[in-house]
Design a protein that fits this description.
transmembrane helix; transmembrane; Flp_Fap; mainly alpha
Length: 57
């Protein structure tokens, strides 16, 4: 009974789970942000490619 009582009073696991959830939320936000950034970056490189193609012809 003492073992069960001591396990119910520990909060180390709860803190680890909270940090894990925070890290997961940050990862999701970064992935979503990089998705939008990659589209913009592709547009910039396409524009540069167009300028270089025009300059060479």
């Amino acid at each position: 009974m003492r073992l069960l009582w001591s396990l119910s009073r520990r909060t180390d696991g709860a803190t680890a789970i909270e940090y894990g959830l925070i890290a997961a939320i940050i990862a999701v936000v970064l992935v979503a942000g990089f998705g939008g950034l990659s589209d913009s970056l592709v547009d910039v490189f396409d524009t540069i490619e167009g300028y270089l193609t025009d300059a060479m012809s």
